[in-house]
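Please predict the structure of the following assembly.
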Amino acid sequence: MRSVSPSAPLPPLESRASFLVSQLGIQSAQRFAAGLAPLGLNPNQFGLLVHVARAEGQSQQQLADTLGLHRNTMVALIDDLEARGLAERRRHPRDRRAYAIHLTSEARRLLPEASRIADEQEALLVEDLSRAERTQLIGLLARISARTGQRAGVHPGYAGPGEP
Amino acid sequence: MRSVSPSAPLPPLESRASFLVSQLGIQSAQRFAAGLAPLGLNPNQFGLLVHVARAEGQSQQQLADTLGLHRNTMVALIDDLEARGLAERRRHPRDRRAYAIHLTSEARRLLPEASRIADEQEALLVEDLSRAERTQLIGLLARISARTGQRAGVHPGYAGPGEP
DNA sequence: TATTGTTATACTCTATAACTATA
DNA sequence: TATAGTTATAGAGTATAACAATA
């Protein structure tokens, strides 16, 4: 049993998983952004492209729901992808209010490249961990992610709360 | 050996440490911000307070260097702390251009409370990991953090690059 | 001449509300 | 009446440059 003296020194931040994960997470996101920049892509756009690729023809509202964003935000994101020639707004087959969002062939060419960059970042991050340690780390992080109510494969980015 | 077909499916994001650490890191930072809010503190202010507490009497420029921020940014941060009654600008004993930044007694009262909140967040994050697993996780993250050139105990926050 | 702190400005992100056209 | 998409506006956060006082 430990008694806590009133002037006990504060525990160092760097010994907390929550601090380390947040410190490394922001660094990792920044480096990924830098790696992606030569492709003219940012992480948000990449994440959105991935989710469009998983199921083409979704409406902007569906994509916003999946990613936990407001539909207003999705407008600008799709605008950007469209301007970059990576996404198309097609007429929705059954709802004339909505668009069906599709990838362009350029996006299909670019996605594997971006994925390769993600692999490079991954390799850099876990560089000096053994294979067993990498598996351990990913396993532990995935368990926490699943339990703390993260939608699998959805990155909050720097975006805030979704629908009210 | 694996041959990569041109239309190979993209590897799921959630199997990458870099994705998971970034996803969890941002979530962790947001939860910490929410936990700190009742104290009228945000994570940046808490981080700054910790670094002031480690060595009182530093100049704003010294603190900015330590945290990797621009001195312009430090002005507003210290302004906020001063307005909250948590920091004092005193005359620097040897340089009349500079201030010596000190904690107030209110800050000394608040810091342990904030630290307790950080402990709660930590407990919540690693809730269903065994003691051995927690040690493993922290060890692996700390190794990566040390290698990837993170200043120990310095959180990049959402702040960008420091001095040019 | 260089450095400390400050202010002003612009730029990016995000949050909110209101509008239109369809359902 | 509710929903999909859009637009406008306001607010936070941050980057840059320029300034006064002091070294």
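Helices of chain A lie at 17-36, 43-54, 60-67, 71-83, 105-125, 131-147. The longest helix of chain A spans residues 105-125.
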